[in-house]
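Re: Re: ligand-bound prediction request (bumping)

Still looking for help on this. To restate: I need the protein modeled with adenosine-5'-diphosphate bound, output as structure tokens. Inputs repeated here so nobody has to scroll up.
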Amino acid sequence: MKPPAVLLTGAGKRYDIVSCFARLTRTVVADPSPLAPAQYAAHVRGAVPLVDDPDYIPALQSLCEQHGVGAVLPLTDLDIEILARAREEGRLPALVPSSEVARATYDKYEAHLLLQKHSLPSPPTVLPDADLDGLHYPVMVKPRRGSGARSIHLAQSAMQARFFIDYVAEATMVQRAMNGPELSIDCLGDLDGRCLNAIPRTMLESRGGESIKGEVIHDEELIELGRRTMEALRVSGPATVQVFRDPETGLGITDVNTRFGGAFPAPVYAALPGRTYPELIVRMAAGETLAPHVGEFRSGMTFTRYYWQLELDEQLRPTGRDIVPIPPLAGPPAPR
Ligand SMILES: Nc1ncnc2c1ncn2[C@@H]1O[C@H](COP(=O)(O)OP(=O)(O)O)[C@@H](O)[C@H]1O
Ligand SMILES: [Mg+2]
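Reply:
Sorry for the wait, this slipped through. Here it is.
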């Protein structure tokens, strides 16, 4: 039987994700920008309106009908809640958590309250109208709805915290600055919010909120924290839980993204054969029930990521040309 197609929204620069799905099944991308590079890895490029347009969900619905889509996955934070609502209304087969959890995890202060409610570790966090003089410093002033590490500032005192709260032109919150290494756990939940796997990695280097170098590690405490977080929030689909391991206070969750994390290749490299998250997602889309296998993966491999590009012609069609029009210096390499 032919597997159902997959629809990826807001593909942007995430060529690795789109091309991985495109090897498994028919892959449709919906991105409002004709210059989003990742759409060129898809079989079908769907032009859709912006996510806040009332025609956005109907446009996705018609792509689903046209191409036999069995799973819709958001690749940015922008439409997770909208897709969740559309799933609850029976309009789209979106692989996302409930709209309530999607909304709460998009707002880092709400996320803090939600984590606390479920007894999951979250660093002390307050809103700007709290008694800032009474806090333990340093703190991070962070936008509540930030992403890509935008407008995050370390403040050493209440005076500096007040400055940054005023300086950042959006709603902020104030969170205890964590020490120690930052780590991420890439997880996948099934349609009932059961955690299928949780794969931790180090964050050796990040740029613009995306992890570009890291190593997959087999860390029982992190695997268990990933599983607990996924099941407390009943997350369906992929999610990345970001934590710090503070030498004094232990683990603290600083960010939960209910979509593929920046370092998509890490859990793909780590998965056992047939169990990469895209493969599991295509099987779930086909109606298969999967057995959880939390902690079953290979550790020790490192990923290091880089940019690549496409040439588009006057009609914005990929030319397929590479950037090395220069012939090799001394002909083909000599046989060894
Ligand atoms: N409480 C904190 N203590 C120390 N560093 C932090 C804290 N919160 C965020 N950061 C740093 O800022 C980066 C981005 O913050 P994050 O909360 O993940 O927001 P974003 O949604 O922008 O990814 C993190 O990867 C981390 O390096
Ligand atoms: Mg983050």
